[in-house]
Amino acid sequence: MRPPLASPTSCGSAPPQGGAPLRPGGAGSAGALDRAEPVSSIQFQLDGKTVEGFEGETILTAAKRHGVDIPHLCFKEGLRPDGNCRACVVEVKGERTLAPSCCRTVAAGMEVQATSERAVKSQKMVVEMLLSDMPDAGYKWIGDDATRQHGELSEWAAKLDVAVRPELKALRREQPAADVSHPAMAVNLDACIQCNRCVRACREEQVNDVIGYALRGQASKIVFDLDDPMGDSTCVACGECVQACPTGALMPKSHIGSQQVDRKVDSVCPFCGVGCLITYNVKDEKIVSVDGRDGPANHGRLCVKGRFGFDYAHHPQRLTKPLIRKPGVPKTLGDGPRPGDYLGAFREASWEEALALAAGKLKDLRDTHGRKSLAGFGSAKGSNEEAYLFQKLVRTGFGSNNVDHCTRLCHASSVAALLEGVGSGAVSNQVNDVEHADLIFVIGANPTANHPVAATWMKNAARRGAKIVLADPRRTEIGKHAWRTLQFKADTDVAMLNALIHAVIDEGLVDEAFIRDRANNFEALRENVKGYSPEAMAPICGIPAETLREVARAFATAKGAMVLWGMGVSQHVHGTDNARCLIALVTVTGQIGKPGSGLHPLRGQNNVQGASDAGLIPMMFPNYQRVDDAGAHAWFENFWGTPLDDKPGYTVVEIMHKALAPDDDPHKVRGMYIMGENPAMSDPDLNHARHALASLEHLVVQDIFMTETAWLADVVLPASAWPEKTGTVSNTDRMVQLGNRALDPPGDAKPDLWIIQQLASRMGLAWKYEGEESGVAAVYEEMRQAMHAAISGISWERLQRESSVTYPCLGEDDPGQPIVFVDKFPTDDGRVKLVPADIIPAAERPDADFPYVLITGRQLEHWHTGSMTRRATVLDALEPMATASMNQADLEAMGLAPGDVITIRSRRGEVAIHVRRDDGTPHGAVFVPFAYYEAAANLMTNAALDPFGKIPEFKYCAVKIERGGVPMAAAGYGTGATGDNPPQSWTAST
385, 513, 759, 861: which has the highest count of C-beta atoms within 10 A? Predict the structure, then answer.
């Protein structure tokens, strides 16, 4: 049995003192975000016995703790108590009417009868009346010990021995028709008891405001938006309503019918960096549905990808046999990949033959051309253990530090600035610490699309009075909840942020004590921002000076002000300078090292934090120890028992350049091993990147699908999807979390951890990791030793007990540190280093030939390069093909309507794509997601690098837009959509 998770304060360790609950933080929170002290206990009578309750605790919750299970239907842990179903009524001595136990709190000396004749009679009557309205032929919901036709309602009827009398059945309401218009969920309001759990889940937990309660009396009903079919509503398919529904009136389409499953397996969501804990429901060796678990990052909440994006693991295009390129077949994508038809270019092989060729050729290249001739790209979608072994293989087997992964393409500049300034590349405060913030500064991020569950904590905080400031060239959905929106001109981040810092200093709002005790180089910063007054910067960044000053004042005077940012900050040639400015802003205001404050770069992929921690970067050993630091270098040489390269390796884009270097370059990259990455889609200037990959003498790709990168490989090794492996991942909140294997890999596909070890063995490394799941616990233990300064207190056994533990955690009794930098920074002198920044323009600016700015990014339904999500049925149905977003004024100026085709062209490439209207996109800009091969945004992006973080400038390049063009045919990953039949949603503002 899984032990209950504790609050975020205890980081998944011991329960609160004495088992006392934490004081609820407000409507809808259910105490999920609280750091309050445990409340005092009181004595009251329950069914004639003296029992202990806690201040603010409801009778229902207290009774359950003491083994008295009171019927309830409208109540659900995590939702605000509503008290509308009256199934939970109890007798309270001295009171004339029965009291709803889910809303009534205990009081000292109170005498409660939960099982008296009067209370039970009323409970039975409510259950019978609700059951009488249910349809006769309901779905069969098979639980652990009872057959239930209508979920929790039938379960309580069975427990109370309730049967519906014919007289009540004869008065049954007219049954509404089913609504199956949504790709993910079925609506059967004939089973609805109007408990309002779905309304509270949608409006108060997720704050999506789609589900409402309309009309009155007998006509009252649940509605979506203005009584629209669910499929036509603004529903974002988070599925919170499905998880909340007690009767099956709302159900996932993937799991209609018998709810009996073969097993439930606890794991972690494989998509974004929020790290939601989940449970896979497995039947007939397939995942049929996913439930949110009460993890410290999500408290049961999920988004559309986490809840409905799971069936990619069962897609018929899964690789199940090792593949070897046929002789003479050129390395080209041609007119497009054929993910289900690759045997014309590859032949199937045995594992022995494929591994021998893969490792043998890499070894030959190393021995012939030197250790710099090989490189490896690891994965942020694999486990920590895989990342650790992968970088160890490159460093000890390949012999160089040419190892990198997608962090180079998302937050490398953020990490560079953070390591330089505060001595740590990780977040200072966890996302849900926004609960304690007065002001939440969101810059260069679109959390409702990229980190939806994290966005719910922000929206919850706004409902409770916190001020959200959205700073972004695009106005996104979180702007609906913002106090102020700073829609600054693209590429003017430094100008705007320096103006805020100037205003803080100019208006005497600097935290002088914090600067005196904990910061260096303040005078240089003060001198540098003298020329960046809000008045001077307003015409540059496009934000009125008074608005900049107003935001600066609010930030500086807030009890807690927290900064969260995304790739809109980092993916620039000045990305490191952008992050330096954010560090300076929180430092001069003292907004770091306390609740509701600090710096939080929102991590993109599910394990980009952990993969970086584990050393999957070219200049750092595990735990960010520089490879050119003599002490760290000597420690790892001793730890791994082998000589190591003492020079930093090449980064992602640099490796591509080195693959095209002349033969006389001693560092020319000739062979690569790529695990779970897709640079043929994710790298900038894709024509160049694909040319580089195709030019390699030997490319080994390990993946679950025939990705665009795998099409260019010499050997393809079929690997395991996330539900098919056991391992840990580390989320954006610095939580190390354990996922358990729910399925076996299909066919002859193998676990990634096993494949890495097999290649290592054939390259001459004498590794030995014994134990279940390819020795994952042994690998973790070695990684824990290598990262002892961060996770020494997080043992494998502890993770099996607790699922999630926050680092730094240095002892078995250490609960972990959700807030860091409280007393000092992990720098040489314990102080933050302020680094002034000046305006550096983008590497490529709009001009007469290329007058528009291209902005790239992700969208809610799809993830990264689309290799997983475009093969997920629901996600593909919701967003089947690529679109470019422009505002209405720009569309009208070009004579375009939503759904028309445009051709976007940069100096490097072009795509033909359908256009959709999005008035949040600024004038003179076009936004394109990068998940679609048919309209690959990175064909156009610029490979210019930030000089510090070595990250490409994905967020800004010059393009021209022309009417017309011929979009590429759907690549065949999912159902696809044709240009003749674009989704209806394109014809309206989004």
Answer: 385
Cβ proximity of 567 and 410 under 8 Å: yes
Beta strand segments in 41-177, E: 41-46, 49-54, 89-92, 99-100, 111-113, 141-142, 147-148
The answer to whether residues 983 and 880 touch, using CB atoms and an 8 Å cutoff, is yes
Displacement of CA 5 from its chain's centroid (Å)? 20
Angle at 219 between CA 215 and CA 222, to 5 degrees: 60
- The pair of structure tokens assigned to 704 is 């679950």
Residues, the chain, total? 990
Query: Residue 730: phi, psi to the nearest 5?
Result: -120, 125
User: What does the block give as tokens for 360?
Assistant: 């043998």
Please state which of the ranges 87-96, 334-343, 370-379, 953-962 shows the lowest mean pLDDT: 334-343
Residue pair 451/273 in contact by the 8 Å Cβ criterion: yes
How would you class 327 by CB atoms within 10 Å of its CB: exposed for 0-12, middle for 13-18, buried for 19 or more? exposed
Q: Are strands 519-520 and 484-486 parallel, antiparallel or unpaired?
A: unpaired
Beta bridge partners of 286: 283
Name the amino acid, one letter, at 626: R
CA 533 to chain centre: 36
- CB-based contacts of 226, cutoff 8 Å, min separation 6: none
Question: Measured at the alpha carbon of residue 632, what is the angle toward residues 626 and 637, in degrees to the nearest 5?
Answer: 115
CA–CA gap between residue 905 and residue 903 (Å, rounded):
6
Q: Parallel, antiparallel, or unpaired: how do β-strands 211-214 and 221-224 relate?
A: antiparallel
How many Å apart are CA 702 and CA 337, to the nearest integer? 17
Strands (DSSP E) found in 47-153? 49-54, 89-92, 99-100, 111-113, 141-142, 147-148
Q: How far is CA 616 from the centre of its chain?
A: 20
List, for residues 938-951, the tens digit of each pLDDT value.
999 999 998 998 99
- The torsion angles phi and psi of 638, rounded to 5 degrees, stand at -70, -40
From the number of C-beta atoms within 10 Å of its C-beta (0-12, 13-18, 19+), residue 897 rates as exposed
Measured over all CA atoms, what is the biggest interatomic distance in the chain, rounded to whole angstroms?
A: 94
Q: In this model, does residue 989 exceed pLDDT 70?
A: no
- Rounded to whole angstroms, the Cα distance separating 599 from 860 reads 24
| Residue 775 three-state SS | helix
Rounded-to-integer distance, Cα 113 and Cα 104, Å: 13
Owner of token pair 């994952």: 776
Number of other residues whose CB lies within 10 A of the CB of residue 770: 8
Whose tokens are 């989704």? That residue is: 983
What CA–CA distance (Å, rounded) separates 784 from 491?
40
Closest by Cα among 414, 371, 235 to 308: 235
Number of C-beta neighbours around residue 665 at 10 A: 13
Q: Residue 120: enclosing H or E segment and its boundaries?
A: helix 117-132
Distance CA 128, CA 132 (A): 6
**pLDDT of 830 over the 50 cut:** yes
Quickly list DSSP for 873-907.
HHHHHHS-S-EEEE-HHHHHHTT--TT-EEEEE-S
**Residue type for 346, please?**
F
CA distance 849 to 857: 24
Residue 145 has pLDDT above 50, yes or no: no
What is the pLDDT, as a whole number, of residue 335?
A: 60
d(CA 242, CA 252) in angstroms, rounded, equals 7
Decide: 470 and 478 in contact? Cβ < 8 Å.
yes
How would you classify the pairing of strands 925-929 and 735-739?
A: unpaired
Enclosing H/E stretch for 925? strand 925-929
pLDDT score of 470 more than 80: yes
3-state helix, strand, coil in the chain (%, to 5): 35, 20, 50
pTM: 0.92
